[in-house]
Amino acid sequence: MTAKQSETLLSCILENEGSYTDSVTLDALITKIKQKREISDGEVTDLIIHIVNDKKEWHVPELINTIKSLLNINWVKIYEKLDSPNLIIDIRSFNKILKIWSYISDNQSLPYHTFFTQWENKEAQEQFLIFYIENRENIIDIRNNIYLKPIIPLSDLEFEEEIFTSSSSVSQHSSEKRTVVQCDLIQTHFNCIELFECISKKSKKLSDLLIRKIIFISPEWGFFGLSTIFPTHRTIFEELFLSNLKREKFSILGFLDKRDPAFLIQCLSDARDNGFSLNKLLDITLELKLLPSILEYLHPPFFCFEILILSSKRDHLNLNIWISNTFKNKGDAFVQGMIAYITEKTKQSTNNGEHISNEPFSMYISNQT
């Protein structure tokens, strides 16, 4: 049986003011409706939306507990249906949405992912994203949210620190290791890929606004998040990347290395194209222990060969042995890469009126042909 508009769960509750505050009255009301027909998920969603929008204070804990005791509700699906033209989001309703879920479940993660999909009610979603980003309270905790994929796993935000202790009564020193968490990074609601993917699909004006808000609060998470949606907002990402290079933020760059070393190498190459010192880039490469990845990927080729030649000059790499081993493993593809590098390097030097020697590359190629 389909409920008429006047017989919906919401309309029945509104007609019985006692059900606002009295759980017994509400229990009797829902039971009466159930005797006539099933109460749909859509009716529960409409009720939640009304409570969220309503300036009147509802006794939400009693209402939710009564509904849970009488109806078999999939609350995640209820929240998935909040994309309604009737939903109005302001700071009060935003907090209500979060608070209502705390009454629904003490241990189940709030399904934030439902707010990061493509919504029909674009205005409501825009406001939700703004309040979500600007929220500084502890009510948003996504560290163990089963619906969201972290940009950086929780375990990667921990490191071991050795603590040395000594006793004045005993001339003995000891040490112990403890796990330290980088709290400024771990206690955040920005560590989810879905948030940045959602932002990337918005209009340029809106997405720029949201990204700038995140960066204002946490430049680190703005940087991490932008790396997941690159090349969207490429200019902003490159600004942050160059800033991290200049300030030698090795811990931040190290997280990027763990997530995608090939992408980090490409970013370093782009920094070189933007005039960043090759010597400085090698220092950073060595600090991050990135040289093995460069040896493996060899992409972008020109930048990688530049770094490898410079590292050999500093005695960090035996170039002859590496060339020989890499040729055995990669064959003609590697030789073609070397030829392309030598050709480009020679062209650059000719244009600059310089003379360079491409040994040992040239010597090795001539020996193989």
TrEMBL record:
Single biological process term from Gene Ontology: negative regulation of translation
One GO MF annotation is: molecular adaptor activity
Q: Where is the signal peptide?
A: none
Entries under InterPro entries matching the protein? CNOT1_HEAT, Not1
- Mind naming one GO cellular-component term on file for this protein? CCR4-NOT core complex
Q: Which domain of life is it from?
A: Eukaryota
Q: Which residues form a coiled coil?
A: none
Stretches assigned to the CCR4-NOT transcription complex subunit 1 HEAT repeat domain? 235-355
Q: What name does UniProt use for this protein?
A: Negative regulator of transcription
| Protein species of origin | Pseudoloma neurophilia
